[in-house]
Every structure is written in C-alpha cells, then in structure tokens.
C-alpha cells in the first residue's frame, strides 16, 4: 500500500511537471532559439550587434500579449544583427493572433526593408542588380512564410471551433428529433389507453350504477356504489395520465399541478374500499410538513401493496402502519404494509400482473431520496417497508 501511494504521488508529480512544461515550453523555447541565432550569427566580438539581437530575442517573451510592439522591437535585431528567428517568430505570432490584412502588409514591408538594406546604409550598392534581386526575393519569402503559417494555424483553430459548434448543433438536433419521436409515441399511447381502458371502465361504472338502482339488497347496493366510485376515480386519474402523455414541457407540469393527487388524507378511504381485512395505524398528520410528493409516494406504496395482497394472498390479514421512523424521527416517514399467509379457503382473483409494481415503487422512493424493502416473512406472509424524507422536501419535489 505504501509503495502504491508513493507511485501515485510520483505519477501526480510527473503529471503536474508535464503540464508546467507544456505551458512554459512554447514561450521559452523560441526565445532560446532566437538567442542561439544571435550568438551564432554575431559571435561575442560584435558587442552592438549581439546586444541588439539578444534584446530582440528576449522581447519574444511578451509576443503573445503584445504581438505588434514585439515585432517592431525585433526589427533592429534583423537590421543591425542579421538575426532571423526573432522577427520571423514575432511576425508569425502577429499573423496568428492579430490577422489584420493592412497591418500584416505593412509589417511584411518593414521586414523586407530591414532584410534588404544593409547596416550601415552606406554599404548599399544600387548597381549590384543580381545580388540585390536575390536578396529581395529572399526577403519576400522570409516575410511571406511566417504570415502564411500564422494564418494557417489561425484558420485551423477557427475550423476546429466551427466543427465543435456543428457537432453540438447535430447533437442538439438529434435530441430534438428524439424528443419529437417520444412525443409522437406518447400521443399514440395516450390514444390507445383512452380507447381501450376508458371504454371498459365506463362500462363497469354504468353496470354498477344500474345494479345500484335496480337491486333492493343493501349489501349489493353498497358494493355497487363502491365499484362506481372506484370507476369514477379511475377515469379521473386516466384522464390526468392521458393529458400528461399528450402534453409536453411546461404544459405537462401545469397539468400535473392541476390534476387531483392523492395524499395521506385519502389512505383511510383507500383502505375502506380495498375489501381486505386491514388494520390501519396512522401516526402522521397528513399535510403537516407540506411534502406532497412524499405523501403521494406513500399513498401509491400502500395502494400497490394492497393490490398485491389481493392478487397473491387472498383472505390474509393486513396491517398498515404510517408514521415517523428512521434515524431522524422528525424527518423520516415510514410506511409499512405487512400481511400474513393467504387463507386457503379464499378464492384467488384472476387479476393480471406485469411484475413491475415493486420495481416502480423502489424507483419512486429512490428518486425522493428514500428506500424501499420488500421481502417474505417467516410466517409465510410478505412485508413492504418504505422510508421517505419528510420535513425538508419541497412541495414540487418528485
């Protein structure tokens, strides 16, 4: 472990050193090359030429911040000391960072003049046509090459930025296309849900209403009334879900805010209409903390657990407990639904199931910062226990 930590520290040190070198090298290396050029061209005997050349080379340290003044500062080094690296590097930096055509043209002419005319100017021989022509061509090439290289590097950087912008635009278009496809699919699902489920539930409600009106048996009438109320509530929630599926963005949020949402106040009514042997123990004042999302999650947890009892443990006794729990008694809400073994004499209803109810409850609990546990008990029953943060959750959470 100690050797591994030491190796990690060395790797970090090498990484930091490498970053520092990569940051400093582009600034220092051109200066060193220019100084070497000045020493090789002028030697150590020519004090004026060497001094002007070294000063011009040292000025390259500021070429990124002041490209034009640095270029002008290197021209005496070219004219007096006959150095090349310093003015060419300065002109390249100017073309890469300040690519103004007029300015670059004037600087190119100045470099050509500093290269073409000798020092001192009295040594210039206008009649040496062949030699002057070669020197002029050399000066033009020496000024054009760094400008072309600087413009090329700048253009490449601009193209890289454009490509990155285009890539982001393509990704944004892909997301928009995916959202459009998702919206279309949601609308199709909404139509299918409305056409299939709403029709069947409406028939159930009508048949229950007919039984409620025609029968003289009070028990049958109460059962029909319960079926009718459940059907009406199912239709209301179905309309809400269809509206959410059809809507998008802020419209969906608005519909969610306007639609009726169950909370802890409706738990007794849910248990009463479940037609199960349920003992309810509620130790939380509904709506006391304003955590509506948590109360909806608690309601849905009890609802799904009772549905599973009805499917898999008919006739079992159920105990529902809702109260404070967890490590922070005032900040956690515990929901526990525990049922015993099924009654062998009770008839199990043939209700369909997809096996996704507990998975959805666990995902809902995790999205609110809570937990959910579901397991079999030693007596052959089943327990579902969920804990939610209750006290610091805003109204719009979840």
Q: Mind explaining what this structure looks like?
A:
The protein is α+β, with helices and mostly antiparallel strands and 398 residues long. It has eleven helices and five strands. Among the domains are: 123 residues, no CATH class; 121 residues, Heat Shock Protein 90. Strands 1-2-3-5-4 form a five-stranded mixed beta sheet. Strand 1, helix 10 and strand 2 form a beta-alpha-beta unit. The longest helix is centred in the middle third of the chain and has 86 residues. The protein is elongated, with a radius of gyration of 41 Å. It catalyses: ATP + protein L-histidine = ADP + protein N-phospho-L-histidine.
Task: Find the count of extended strands (DSSP E, 2+ residues).
Answer: 5
Helical fraction equals 55-70%
- Identify low-pLDDT runs: 249-258, 392-398
- Identify the overall geometry: elongated
- What proportion strand? 5-15%
Report the biggest beta sheet as strand number plus sense, adding barrel if it closes.
5 strands, mixed
| Major β-sheet strand ordering | 1-2-3-5-4
How widely separated are the two ends?
Answer: 44 Å
- Mean model confidence by pLDDT: 82
Along the chain, the helix and strand elements come as HHHHHHHHHEHEEHEE
Protein name: histidine kinase
Catalytic activity: ATP + protein L-histidine = ADP + protein N-phospho-L-histidine
Transmembrane segments: 21-41, 70-92, 104-122
Region (Disordered): 339-359
């Amino acid at each position: 472990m100690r050797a591994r930590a030491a190796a990690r520290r060395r790797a970090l040190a090498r990484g930091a050193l490498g970053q520092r070198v990569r940051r400093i090298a582009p600034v220092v290396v051109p200066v060193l090359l220019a100084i070497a050029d000045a020493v090789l061209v002028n030697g150590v005997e020519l004090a004026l030429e060497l001094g002007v050349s070294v000063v011009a080379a040292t000025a390259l340290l500021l070429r990124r911040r002041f490209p034009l003044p640095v270029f002008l500062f290197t021209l005496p080094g070219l004219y007096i000391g006959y150095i090349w690296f310093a003015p060419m590097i300065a002109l390249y930096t100017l073309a890469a960072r300040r690519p103004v055509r007029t300015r670059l043209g004037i600087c190119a002419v100045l470099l050509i003049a500093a290269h073409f005319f000798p020092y001192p100017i009295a040594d210039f021989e206008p009649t040496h046509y062949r030699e002057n022509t070669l020197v002029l061509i050399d000066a033009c090439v020496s000024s054009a090459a760094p400008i072309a290289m600087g413009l090329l590097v700048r253009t490449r950087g601009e193209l890289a930025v454009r490509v990155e912008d285009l890539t982001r635009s393509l990704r944004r278009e892909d997301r928009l296309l995916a959202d459009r496809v998702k919206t279309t699919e949601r609308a199709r699902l909404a139509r299918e849900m409305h056409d299939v489920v709403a029709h069947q539930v409406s028939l159930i409600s009508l048949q229950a209403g007919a039984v409620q009106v025609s029968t003289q048996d009070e028990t049958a009438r109460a059962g029909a009334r319960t079926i009718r109320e459940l059907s009406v509530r199912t239709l209301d929630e179905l309309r809400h879900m269809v509206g959410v599926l059809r809507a998008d963005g802020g419209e969906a949020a608005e519909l969610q805010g306007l639609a009726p949402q169950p909370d802890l106040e409706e738990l007794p009514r849910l248990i009463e209409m479940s037609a199960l042997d349920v003992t309810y123990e509620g130790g939380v004042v509904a709506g006391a903390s304003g955590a509506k999302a948590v109360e909806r999650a608690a309601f849905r947890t009890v609802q799904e657990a009772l549905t599973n009892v009805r499917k898999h443990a008919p006739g079992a006794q159920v105990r529902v407990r809702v109260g404070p729990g967890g490590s922070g008694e005032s900040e956690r809400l515990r929901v526990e639904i525990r049922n015993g073994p099924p009654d062998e004499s009770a008839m199990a209803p043939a209700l369909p199931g997809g096996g996704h109810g507990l998975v959805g409850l666990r995902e809902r609990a995790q999205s609110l910062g809570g937990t959910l546990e579901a397991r079999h008990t030693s007596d052959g029953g089943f327990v579902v226990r969920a804990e939610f943060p209750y006290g610091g959750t805003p109204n719009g959470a979840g």
